[in-house]
Design a protein that fits this description.
single chain; four-stranded antiparallel beta sheet; 156 residues; 3 helices; alpha+beta; 7 strands
């Protein structure tokens, strides 16, 4: 039986957020020698701060639509005895709210920039595993969206 192993330290993926949708694309480097095969799919576990949220089957050769509420998540994967974990913010609805707000005739540029900075703080703090700070800015961003009377519904 052939093994499917990510080359040590080469578990890579990109999440693209579009209005209310997120796509996960695998960019991992897989072992490809005589005893190995690149899998068609593999599983990742998605956790929030308290529990397992989802188990996703990920295709290796095409983008994968993932359906998660906006939030900060741990993406976990194990390959040939090596455990990989990456923390990141997945916030397509929040980003969509910002985009919709920018299309309003009477939008306030300063508030738009403030919301953009909150989104940046959420993503950056999540990336560096500062989940508490990311969560604080997520709460601030949701409150600002509410005050701006945007035509959108945050799902968390």
């Amino acid at each position: 039986m052939l093994c499917s192993c990510v080359t040590a330290g080469k578990f890579e993926f990109f999440i693209e957020e579009m209005c209310d949708k997120s796509y996960y694309t695998d960019f991992s480097i897989w072992e490809d020698g005589e005893d190995y095969e690149i899998p068609v799919t593999y599983k990742v576990i998605v956790n929030d701060s308290t529990e397992k949220v989802a188990e996703l089957d990920i295709f290796t050769h095409k983008p994968n639509l993932i359906e998660l509420k906006d939030g900060v998540y741990e993406i976990c994967f194990e390959s040939c005895g090596i455990k990989y974990t990456r923390t990141m913010a997945i916030i397509p609805t929040l980003i969509c709210c910002l985009d919709r707000y920018k299309t309003q005739y009477d939008y306030d540029r300063e508030k738009s920039l403030l919301l953009e900075s909150y989104i940046d703080f959420i993503k950056t703090n999540a990336q560096f595993n500062h989940t508490r700070i990311a969560a604080e800015y997520f709460i601030k961003a949701k409150a600002l969206i509410k005050r701006l009377n945007c035509d959108c519904q945050l799902n968390k």
